[in-house]
Amino acid sequence: DDGVPCAALMFNNLQALLTKAGYHPPVFALKCIKNIGGIDSLAEVIQCSEKGLEWMPLNRDMAAKSQISLPDPFLWLTDKAKYEAVCGAVRACVTQSSKQTVQLDKLKFNEISRDVFCGSIFSQISVESSVFAKGTGPLKKWMDSKVSDSTEKIFIDWLSCQCPRFDTCVDTKKLEGMCQLQVGVNFALWGLMSTQSWLYALFFAPDAHKKSFLISVPDDEFASVVKASGRVGWYICPNGHKYSVGQCTMPMQKARCPNCGAEIGGSNHVNVRGVRRLDEGEIKGDPDPGYSIENNESEAIRMSPLASRTLRFILHISLLVSCSIRQVFADQIARVLGNEDKKVEPFEFLTRRMRQDWKMLKKSTGLGDGDLTLALHLAIRQLRLETQLAKGLTLTSSVNRNREETKIANVVEKIFSDRNLRSRLEATRTALQDDNTMSAIRLATGEKLWYEIHEEQYSAKESPDLQTLLWRFREPVSFESFKTFWRLQGPDVTERYALLRTLLREEEKLPAIRGVADVLAWHGVLFEVLPHMSITRVESIELKNKDIIAKLPAERQEEAREIFSRFAAIFNLILPTIELLYECNQNPFIKDGAINLGEPAEMCLETSVGFSLPSMVTGTDKGDFINGMCTIRILEILVDSQNEVLEAIEESGKRKKGGFKRFPNAPGAAAPAQPAPVAPEREAPQVPAVSYRTPTSILQNQLVVYNREKDLLPLLRMFAEQSLKYGDGGELSYNLDMVESALKNGLLAGKRGVNLCISHYQYAGDVKRMGQLAMLEKKLPQDRNMSSSFKETIAAEIDTQNRALRLMQILEICIQFIVSIGSSSTKNFDGRTTLSSYVLNTLHIPQSEWDEISTTTIQQQICLRNIQALYILLEAQVSGNPLDDVLDEFSENLSGDQENMVRLAGSKMDVDYLVTCMHDFMISQLTKPAHNPSTNLKEFLGYFNDLNFEDWWEEFPEGLELRHTRAVYEVLHS
């Protein structure tokens, strides 16, 4: 009105408010402490003896000797008047020096349930260190005269003695320890009143659970792997180890069991001897009964993480309380937890695991010790009102266990997902607290500050002033608060938002998706400087990244350094997250959770290019050169993250249109869930393929470029649901519909799945080093017969050694490609396909280059089944016959009988494959004096090439030695 700009007016008002704000900031700090950790955290601050808190407007001397007690949840067990009468009688008994049982005698004992007596004993005696020790004697004697059940007597005696042995490993003098004990006792009271239940047995008959399917125990690990593996066939090796076969799910090639080395797989859909396919019953399988939680961090994936962790806490706190009640119970539980080979000390073991559960629950819920305790008491109260535990001291099947878990999980998720949970906890605390319980805090704060901390009006006529409104507490919108809010939602909510579910799972990787372009850009530099077959694997280890940049023209080197810098950042970020680098092999380049490539440890200019060049490992020495898998796995992981997020958009859309229907017996229902149909293997997106040749600008437009600060947090602030009302700032929720919709139409709009084609570098010398000639024979049967005149014609046409070398390089690429691809693809190979057709149409070698290297005879008459013979011919032409290097001591002639024996055996063996194996064996092993010529040939050769697992290997003649190797080869080859 006065012509002052609105922004300036607002700034002047804020400046005035902040200038006079000397009192309000410390009050705001107290509000934050109370909202983050509950009223118990405020109490800890008040009682803290450390200096440095003088700025707080507290009279801490007034509360120095006051004791802060927990709210008493056992008030809910009966009406308030009856409970207070029992508590008063118990208190009088243990604090008076005479006539202790007068008040107890006035009670109508038979009209009061045992759990009420037990709850009052705990609240009046177990948590009070000031009771007269001699007063507990009359109480125990009086209870013993009234109670006939032996179990109840044992439990009451334990409570009356202030819960001995529980503090063996848990400090009950601290808030956390007392909270855990109180929750454990509350569960014990529920069990005590359900005498024919598994919960009762956890506390009072633990030995029964040695054969029980315990709550929260993960399903059989194999069943979980099956569920996550998609469409594969499952088999078992001769020694009982399980493995899977992808693609068509039937055996098409042989391999070695990674556990025991036995031969597995097969050929043409026929298993090798001793291998069989698992039937449906074996795949589905139940876990073993009893306690089988190897890793306490693992969740039971049949439930939400919150429900799983809550049930795990119930299991551990119940067993820990049981250990404390009687030493006999502790001995029984030791047998439940361990076995003859594994002895377990139950107190230490259960305490460690229970504390871990408690810590994870606090993290998941965002609640402090006191508030988490109250929330669990609310859950117990609701469970006792609404839930009937199954009859029987043991859970006799996983179906029964899952049904019991679902009952508890539904209530737990309902309690913790309540958007008004904090205000509900505050109201619960007020309802359960004694009149004098809060006196310590109120004495320290004073009444006015007490109400300000709780953002309540001191009197009905009072209203907060402008400064008080400015310094009111509001739960900050953040990624952490959103994750906590999401974790607290039940499966009925999280299943509706497939995009948010996937995004939160992949969120740590999403910023790195842009790195796909950086990795491919560096691949482009490498392939430009190092053409295929130009270096060997050994040379790649010696060659450094800086050497690659140095080979470029000077004007391009700075750009190459920038490309490499971005590539190295992504490499060092993602590689440590990859646990399995190749098949079931652990990542050997991680040490103590950090990347370790040797010297230097991280990817840098001094690192060898063997880690940068993408190369699939195949052959006998693949374990020595697994470094080529690093960038392949990094690209696969990043592309999978993008594709999974985009697939989630489609799934979310289908769900909201009713495209997906929930199974009647889906997890979460009371009835047992039926096994879900096996998920089909994910198909490549129906979009053009991208590779290192794709321009970076095009690739970047296709990739999801995510930044949490720019792409997610603004949406969370925009769609946060939080009241502006004074005193309601602690309640924060999010509109999940709007957040998911905004992500679809913003960050992910126009994005599509990535169909990545990774070009694998072809190293020179791999055919020999990796034994790929023998592998070629397995993948594509070879014809070794080549007439002398035909060999002479080819030799004459290949007129220079350089031409022969270049042709060998092409053949090596062919062999490596055939050996590398899956079995489902090799079955489509036709050995009669001409080499020219394969080179031009499959490998896409330019016609001009092929015409220059090949000859007329090769183009017209050489087929895929002749590759091996042609390669050996060219090898002899370039380097001489490699078998000429076999030492004389391994080339002794056979006797007539021995030669006849070899020829006879040849008719019963796979001679083509055997000859190829012997060829590679002699070149790699018998050109140096490393072996004793008198060594048994059958034993050594069978072990070296795994021939002893072939059905026909038993036909190989006995009695031959390594000295006869060359001669045996010549006989079989003829």
Describe the protein in words.
With 974 residues, the chain is mainly alpha-helical. Among the domains are: 6-67 and 437-470, no CATH class; 208-219 and 290-419, no CATH class; 225-284, Rubrerythrin, domain 2; 766-880, no CATH class; 888-973, no CATH class. 51% of the residues lie in helices and 4% in strands. The chain is built from 44 helices and 14 strands. Strands 2-1-6 form a 3-stranded antiparallel β-sheet, with no helix packed on it. Strands 3-4-5 form a 3-stranded antiparallel β-sheet, with no helix packed on it. A two-stranded antiparallel sheet has the order 7-8. Strand 1 and strand 2 form a beta hairpin. Helix 13 (305-325) packs antiparallel against helix 15 and helix 35 packs antiparallel against helix 40 (867-879). The N and C termini lie far apart (109 Å). Mean pLDDT is 83; it is low at 619-623 and 657-682.
Please outline what is shown here.
This protein is mostly helical. The protein contains 44 helices and 14 strands. Helices cover 51% and strands 4% of the residues.
**What is the helix content?**
40-55%
Characterize the biggest β-sheet: 3 strands, antiparallel
Strand-pairing-aware structural class? mainly alpha
Shape: elongated
Q: How many H/I helical runs? A: 44
- Portion of residues in beta strands equals under 5%
Give the strand order of the largest sheet, numbering strands 1, 2, ... along the chain.
Answer: 2-1-6
Overall average pLDDT:
83
The gyration radius over C-alpha positions equals 37 Å
What's the end-to-end separation, in Å?
Answer: 109 Å
Overall strand count: 14
Low-confidence segments, given as residue ranges, are: 619-623, 657-682
